[in-house]
Design goal:
heterodimer, A: 397 residues, alpha/beta, 8-stranded mixed sheet, globular, B: 412 residues, Rossmann fold, Immunoglobulin-like, 6-stranded antiparallel sheet, 6-stranded mixed sheet, 8 helices, 23% helix
Chain lengths: 397, 412
């Protein structure tokens, strides 16, 4: 089994894939193992062995991380001051700190030299440590999980002198390249640690959609500078969602400014561009606890907490997200018009057509808990929810 | 000192029967115009034992304030909230001004003069914000009615009477808790300044914006620094345009050596250690001193918004005294009884509609929590945490008070 694809290998694979038609690229898209584990609580006595087993089933972390700098993109979407009801953010829409800590601990145990926890904190250049305190987290729980664990807020220039330009090997659906915080280049291994959720714009948010947050809002955000990046990020990524303007001129512009200015078209494609530019070596999608109805408290749906009690991990993000979709009760081969992509394009399909990985479960070896046993019926809940009237939003401020 | 509950009498209320509205309310001081048409009102109000004047009494400082609440942008078909530099709604509040005036003259009572804008039509919740914003900080808003409400009340319109009932309840709530005025502010940072002259704009705006940043502060007038002034604080902010006098410098550096943080600018003068290489900050250099640290801004203070927000991170959110969830544009004022047996945390929600399913985390160790709206006790759920308590609120209006018993708060 192939473990780490180097950037060059990735480029080569993707470039080769581009040579054929979308169909042939899809047929040739890589397939690798995906592991599923049941885990009902975030108690480390249960979580650590479950995650250890997941990684062992994928061939062991040591081969992936030993002696390496590992960058982990976590999911802290939205402001830390908004919750679903009274529930902690990590029980609904943030990657749980215990999962992050467990991953860091196991990576260090497997010989990782340096573990960097990355997130583009909402509308701020504050350190991630300060950001998570506002969510009522204790950053030391993560920083103390292993030696050499550190955070970086990637929503701006951060600790580097300049942004890193990462090119989309297949040319990109929307963006040919991105200017990102240095952390996404200055690592040997890139890990996406996501939360399993539905998503209002992209249908689902899993290991690939998690990477949408790599884009710094100083360049791709509402308050981005016109010519040069702004110093601090302001607001969200309306620019990418709506295409109402281009990124700062210092960064690569869109390939075709006349392409649709519709978020349900743009977001899935941008995600694929990002995942191609910054390949994911290990995808971890946690749903010990999560939510149904959307990706965060701001979504106008009947949002409900959920406890699927499952974690999925894989070495290919498309494969991993395909298995996650099946765990959620959705068909990973679904296209626009079919749940959960009623109104949007499938990020998985676009990724497959770009040659990043297959979403065909027949080609993916699933190990550990069987999908049927791990299933939590997001799809059924979604169907029932869509038959009911939209609830009042209420006031969350 | 007893606190009045003042009201500006509407000029169009020339019929003395309008005084019936004040029956059984806390309103006891009427500012009535000098017009002859109001003579009968003046006479009957005096007969009723109300204080009547056209100015504030001695020992009351009357300050010009803003109508508190989320500032709405002008123009356009739909009302839209103005935003601050990071896009959060801009909130006008007089809380900082009441606190500053009280700090500058502790013997004085503070009345905030902030009448509704001309042609304003305000909801009861907006009046509640106006009353609570000042009263929670120990001042009083001069109750001033908008023209439509005044006319509606004169006509005994039921909707206007309902709004009046809510206004009277809010005024009565604070009048009945006059002892809360003696409670001391619990703060993380002390703002040391003369708040005057060249420093007036920056220091005063800094207080305003520290409130908005959720940073709890103590006001330390420069000429009145004592040993107790810095007690239990984690940091001091000195942003004045001139270097401190030697005695003040010594006091502040003593605070730092004992483990505190000083946040200051280049005008502070010589710092007794070289900048630390680690902990680099884009706008400050850190210097170690004793058990504490000094953060010296690279440039002279010119942006109080930036300073207020920087101070929160320089001190660290770890020490937040109050954290909000699902609260929108909110503010808080954390106070402790002189005997330290009880804390009161005032929660202010400045949007037109109060929050739903909000949570508030209060730092400190408390045995019991009682929550109040101006209408009475409020049932809340609580959750004990390490050195804090989290309170889950149901749908509420613009103001909630939390009485926390048996405080063992380490920061107070």
């Amino acid at each position: 089994m192939e473990w780490i694809q180097t950037r060059r290998e990735w480029l080569s694979t993707a470039a080769a894939a581009l040579a054929g038609s979308a169909l042939s690229r899809a047929a040739a898209a890589p397939a690798s193992r995906v592991a599923i584990a049941r885990c009902k609580t975030y108690n480390s006595a249960e979580l650590l062995p479950a995650m250890q087993k997941l990684f062992d089933q994928l061939g062991g972390l040591e081969r992936l991380v030993k002696g390496k700098t590992v960058a982990c993109k976590i999911n802290l979407t939205g402001s830390p001051t908004y919750r679903i009801g009274y529930l902690p953010l990590e029980d609904t829409h943030y990657t749980h700190p215990q999962v992050i800590a467990a991953a860091a601990h196991l990576m260090a145990k497997a010989g990782a030299r340096r573990i960097r926890i990355l997130e583009s904190a909402w509308s701020t250049a504050d350190p991630v440590e300060e950001y998570v305190l506002r969510a009522n987290w204790e950053p030391r729980d993560i920083l103390g999980a292993a030696p050499n664990v550190e955070f970086e807020n990637t929503n701006y220039l951060g600790k580097a002198k300049k942004y890193s330009r990462l090119t989309v090997p297949f040319g990109g659906y929307i963006f040919p390249a991105f200017d990102l915080n240095h952390s996404y280049e200055d690592c040997d291994v890139f890990v996406s640690i996501a939360k399993m959720k539905e998503h209002a714009t992209a249908g689902v948010t899993l290991s690939m959609k998690n990477c949408f947050g790599m884009t710094p809002c100083t360049i791709y955000g509402t308050g981005a500078g016109v010519d040069e990046p702004s110093d601090v990020p302001k607001g969200g990524r309306t620019l990418v969602h709506a295409g109402n303007r281009q990124p700062s001129k210092s960064a690569p512009a869109e390939k075709d400014p006349k392409s649709p200015r519709v978020d349900t078209w743009r977001v899935p494609r941008t995600v694929v561009d990002l995942v191609a530019a910054r390949p994911i070596h290990l995808a971890i999608v946690e749903a010990v606890k999560t939510m149904t109805g959307g990706e965060g408290p701001w979504i106008r749906e009947d949002l409900q907490p959920a406890a699927p009690g499952v974690i999925v991990a894989g070495l290919n993000p498309v494969n991993t997200d395909a298995v996650c979709m099946s765990v959620m009760g959705f068909d990973p081969l679904a296209d626009r018009g079919t749940p959960p992509f009623e109104r949007c394009d499938s990020t998985l399909k676009l990724a497959e057509e770009a040659g990043l990985g297959t979403r065909d479960l027949r080609r993916i070896e699933v190990i550990g808990t069987r999908i049927a046993e791990a299933r939590y019926d997001f799809a059924g809940i979604r169907e029932r929810r869509h038959k009911a009237p939209v609830p009042p939003m209420g006031i969350r401020g | 000192m007893a606190e009045w509950t003042p009201m500006r009498w509407p000029d169009q209320w020339t019929d003395p029967s309008a005084l019936d509205l004040l029956h059984a309310t806390a309103i006891d001081y009427l500012l009535i115009g000098k017009a002859e048409t109001l003579a009968a009102v003046r006479a009957r109000a005096q007969q009723a034992g109300l204080h009547v004047a056209d100015a504030a009494p001695p020992r009351v400082t009357r300050v010009k304030g803003e109508w508190p609440g989320v500032k709405m942008a002008r123009g356009g078909g739909r009302a839209q909230a103005s935003a601050g530099p990071t896009g959060v709604p801009w909130v006008d509040s007089n809380g900082w001004l009441v606190r500053l005036e009280r700090a500058l003259d502790p013997q004085s009572s503070i009345w905030v003069d902030a009448p509704p804008a001309e042609n304003a039509r305000l909801a009861a919740g907006s009046y509640l914000s106006a009353i609570a914003d000042s009263a929670s900080r120990g001042g009083r808003w001069i109750l001033s009615l908008d023209g439509q409400l005044a006319a509606g009340l004169a006509a005994r319109n039921p909707q206007a009477l309902d709004t009046w009932k809510k206004i009277a309840a809010a005024a009565g709530f604070f009048a009945a808790r006059d002892n809360w005025r003696e409670y001391r502010a619990v703060g993380l940072v002390g703002v040391v300044s003369d708040f005057a002259g060249e420093n007036e704009f920056f220091s005063r705006e800094l207080l305003n914006l520290l409130d908005r940043a959720g940073q709890h502060y103590r006001i330390v007038p420069k000429g009145r620094v004592t040993e107790a002034s810095f007690a239990s604080l984690r940091a001091l902010i000195y942003s004045d345009a001139e270097a401190p006098a030697p005695a003040l410098r010594k006091q502040v550096l003593g605070f730092v050596e004992g483990g505190g943080i000083l946040i200051t600018g280049p005008k502070w003068g010589q710092v007794p250690s070289a900048p630390a290489k680690a902990d680099e900050h884009p706008r400050y250099s850190w210097h170690a001193l004793g058990k504490g640290r000094i953060a010296v801004a690279h440039e002279d203070p010119d942006d109080p918004y930036q300073w207020a927000n920087d101070s929160v991170v320089l001190v660290s959110h770890r020490y937040d005294l109050v954290r909000f969830w699902n609260c929108g544009a909110a503010g808080s004022y954390y106070t402790m009884a002189p005997d330290r047996k009880q804390a009161v945390v005032h929660l202010l929600f400045y949007a037109n509609r109060g929050p739903d399913q909000a949570s508030v985390r209060i730092a400190g160790r408390f045995r019991a929590v009682r929550a109040w709206t101006v209408d009475g006790p409020l049932k809340v759920a609580t959750e004990s945490q390490k050195d804090a308590i989290e309170v889950h609120l149901p749908q509420v209006g613009q103001y909630v008070a939390l009485e926390l018993t048996n405080g063992m708060d380490s920061n107070a």
